[in-house]
Write a structure and sequence with these properties.
By secondary structure, this protein is α/β, with parallel strands linked by helices. The strands form 2 sheets. A 7-stranded mixed sheet has the order 6-5-4-3-2-1-14, covered by helices on one side. Strand 3, helix 1 and strand 4 form a beta-alpha-beta unit. The structure holds zinc ion (2 copies).
Length: 252
Amino acid sequence: MEITVVGSGTVVPRLGRRQSCVVVEAGGETLVFDLGSGAVRGMMRAGLDPFAADRIFFTHFHPDHTLDAVNLLFTIKYGAEGKRTRPLHVAGPEPFRRFWESVLAVWGDTMSGDYPTHVSELSRETSAPLDLPGCSLSWAPTEHSPESIAYRLDGPDGAFVYTGDTEYSEAVAELARGAHTLLTECTGSDDDPLPRHLTPSGAARIAREAGVGRVVLTHLHPAVDDGSLPSKVREWYDGEVVVAEDGLRLRV
Ligand SMILES: [Zn+2]
Ligand SMILES: [Zn+2]
């Protein structure tokens, strides 16, 4: 699995950090997790082809994770040189269908292409793994919004977990159990935590309890985004600690 952190920022506008988006290339397919503002241009900046997306998965519906979905589909419809024929799979947690239909009610004519689009809704509580080419996908509820979930991809060389947004959650630690790489949100500082989000100690606690080999910190609010972040996480977790940047590539 090749993983690219396309956007490592939050709702706070910053030149150096776009909003949430992660691209995973596995089994010959391109999987996109979240599409916050700037994601399409961020993919290009990272050397990725936005038209390559085969499957899109949303962790939750907040705009900093979904805004560029409209942009991506509009771009596929009118901005690509060739006409898309291969299907696009779009999925998110319940009630995703209602969310997607309301987006289509506003933008549908301009974003819906002639290619097949498969929309699926993931039950938040049950996670029978979904078999994808070269990997399997599972998920678990997070502590953030009523619908929010985290994702886990199991491939031949290990597992990759992306938390989306959450505060400390046993379910997320369980989902991440034994993973090679945990890409976790780390929005607020321990001195001034943001409700429903993780801090360095919370992210470290999940990483430690899950026994992951490497933790990568993303969804970075300016308040937490200084050079001291890795050492703060290392106070509670003794594996590898990486602070994400837009365009960061990881291999599992
Ligand atoms: Zn959120
Ligand atoms: Zn967010």
